[in-house]
């Protein structure tokens, strides 16, 4: 299953999508060069001011849900998420190549590009394998990290709806039944 597996990772309040490096296509293929030696690349979405500089006061938490520019965090792993995170934190989704291509396309289209045609880097995370890129879409109360992940899975062709998604648990619950399906069904 690993060749056609996509990983949905529950990070508590936030979900991310993990793609095997071999499945990165289109605009996402550049991450093979950016992260040589990576096995899996995780993509997470969030509000720029909140995601690149975590809140340190109650006031910052209160303004977190307000609309603003968004970023996509790209995190390179030398293993797979199901091996890196604890039980129950990862749903492994079997997918056909056409589905992973559509998923790559959705994520790639949301990455703002610079003059060189590459994703526009806006910040480096706490570790060199964590980079933040400008997103074309905006973060709002109705377009959050978890809704973006559910939307991405739906655009890939999976029967996952982003309607009413607010919490990480909602995305995980909607995707969990798909872990047992044959790829492309």
TrEMBL record:
Q: Which organism is it from?
A: Gluconacetobacter sacchari DSM 12717
Descriptive protein name: DUF2459 domain-containing protein
Which Pfam families did the record assign? DUF2459
Task: Tell me the InterPro entries matching this sequence.
Answer: CHP02117
